[in-house]
């Protein structure tokens, strides 16, 4: 970017940006030296399970609203129109299913890591696979989140790129490593407010500079930016109602249903009801966040009328263009550029801190504690803090990898969620809805799902065909207007409709279908392998780890068919099985958090006694004694 076009910060801007980092640090340090002073893993990793639904819900938003969304969504709207807005339709089922299926099952098991569920339901091997997959996904995603704001800032203001990456990374690592989940949640609350304020400021200024709302509307309408309801069923079409509204549901389930960052927040809620309520409260805030970033894209289009400034920005993508426009718009309004940059870094910090903390949690709970059950709390907490530092440095390295990707950051992030988050979602669905699935099937399913999603994902990057990218409406509108010859029009319309065939068509699958595609691949493979290697009976499965989805869906089916389908015992009824004391050997193996002596577990409506979950053989023995099968109605 040649210096003449660079936008410069005034002192006020630097002050505002500095204040944001200082405020985040202060909140983090406050939680490091208050309360239990972060001396136990229950406090450091689970915030003492004492959080209310408001901070939890704001923190749930912040975890997956990073600078990628703040920059990537407006760039998407500016370039392709408002089709992306339909992802909002996916938020309905994308949050209802977590609230009524995943949270009840996971919360009642009193877990610290979502992947403990996989050991309870399957085996330790499946748990390790799930944990490693999550770590892989989160480390790459964190790289994108650290890199995006720093790269955009550098492209527009010449702000030292790696200086910004280091500053963000270090501030975040410090307050996360010192303040634990409480610090992460409360800084998330503060950072979400800054994020909304920054976007609102840009929208208000942009509307005023474009001549008012009606003028903005006229320009975006003429510029063909308002996309209608595109019901094209073609799965290679990049963004349609189906890829966003239906494919997006699986993306949401992989993030808000089974992703450790979100599950940890649900589990940190005071009661299950608070957790479900926080999930409901996410809906309006998520719609607001989506609307703000979409409107910001429209306002920018109205202000700059589809001009393409990528020439000024050098080879960088549309993403930096968004920040260029914002800086250009806010020039001469001292403090606003600083506010927007603070908004950008707030979004990044709140996502990165959530990722650090959840990485430290799963590493401790899934990979370390089970092998060192005798580890003292003090040592475990110290190790958790060291892990947060380690992951902080690792993500700086991943930021460099993002530098090499070269795609739109929003697309990179959504692809990662689809390619890696989708298979993990499939693993949890296999476990919860199909009791006949066994551990071998689970591992084979996860492997198949990851292989397939990486095949299509990397294939699309290599052949640069991630969904047929239609000409942007701007040039289509201009080119298709009456002053071009008919021949040109025919040629042009064919160009955008050329159908790739065979493997190329497979690589052209819209990345919004990756989550659903890989999820179903895991379930299908998992069931086939389970049936080949000997399916489980429902009584073989640890009670409380399945959800009678088909029992509810096929309520009308006669009993004997439902018995074949298995999994007809409603979750509530398996609850009554849980009131049984566990033989001592199941305690302390890292599966279920051990409570400090004297620390009475907080009031929950979980039916599980705190310290244990019944072992399968113990359960089976009891059932045989009582001569009942799993399907008969259990006494309430
Ligand atoms: O913003 C990011 O860091 C990643 C972008 C992906 C956001 C996903 S899309 C569906 C859901 N809605 C959000 O606001 N975030 C996630
Ligand atoms: Na965020």
TrEMBL record:
GO MF terms, alphabetically ordered: monoatomic ion transmembrane transporter activity; symporter activity; vitamin transmembrane transporter activity
Pfam family, one: SSF
Transmembrane residue ranges: 12-33, 53-73, 85-107, 128-153, 159-177, 189-208, 239-258, 279-302, 322-349, 386-406, 412-434, 441-462, 511-532
Record's catalysed reaction(s): biotin(out) + 2 Na(+)(out) = biotin(in) + 2 Na(+)(in); (R)-pantothenate(out) + 2 Na(+)(out) = (R)-pantothenate(in) + 2 Na(+)(in); (R)-lipoate(out) + 2 Na(+)(out) = (R)-lipoate(in) + 2 Na(+)(in); iodide(out) + 2 Na(+)(out) = iodide(in) + 2 Na(+)(in)
Membrane-related topology note: Multi-pass membrane protein
A GO CC annotation given for this chain: apical plasma membrane
Keywords: Biotin, Cell membrane, Glycoprotein, Ion transport, Membrane, Sodium, Sodium transport, Symport, Transmembrane, Transmembrane helix, Transport
Subcellular location: Apical cell membrane
Keyword Repressor: no
Function of the molecule: Sodium-dependent multivitamin transporter that mediates the electrogenic transport of pantothenate, biotin, lipoate and iodide. Functions as a Na(+)-coupled substrate symporter where the stoichiometry of Na(+):substrate is 2:1, creating an electrochemical Na(+) gradient used as driving force for substrate uptake. Required for biotin and pantothenate uptake in the intestine across the brush border membrane. Plays a role in the maintenance of intestinal mucosa integrity, by providing the gut mucosa with biotin.
Subunit structure: Interacts with PDZD11.
Family per similarity comment: Belongs to the sodium:solute symporter (SSF) (TC 2.A.21) family.
The name this protein goes by in its record: Sodium-dependent multivitamin transporter
Organism the protein comes from: Labrus bergylta
